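Supplementary Text 2. Reproducibility record for the structural model of the 118-residue chain.

All settings were left at their defaults, and a single model was retained for analysis rather than an ensemble. We include the record here because the model underlies the residue-level annotations in Supplementary Table 4.
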Amino acid sequence: MKNTVTCTICPNGCEIEVNYTTKEDAVITGHGCKRGITYSLDECFAPKRTFTSSVKISGTDRRVLPVRTTAPIPKELVMDAAQAVRTMALTVPVQCGQVLAENFLGTDANLVSAMTLE
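Retained model, structure tokens:
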């Protein structure tokens, strides 16, 4: 199988080609650094994304609070994460970086506030 990945680890944005049958026999070309190798393998075999969304909040003139995960989560859990935050409701005060859900969806990433509201 052949896959082309645009690396987002550094500002170079290398176009990396991965030819593989399994992870062990992957041939990787086009990377500008070693981090690109790891990124492209992860993208082909276990893609992850930093989850960002918003949660309902009361006690302020804002209706929603931006939230994000502290680390990328498996891509296949993104829709589950969206469903989980739909059921959440907060009240002020909330500090930026405040942990709202530890080990969010069992991913070892925390869901945190991305804004302070008092």
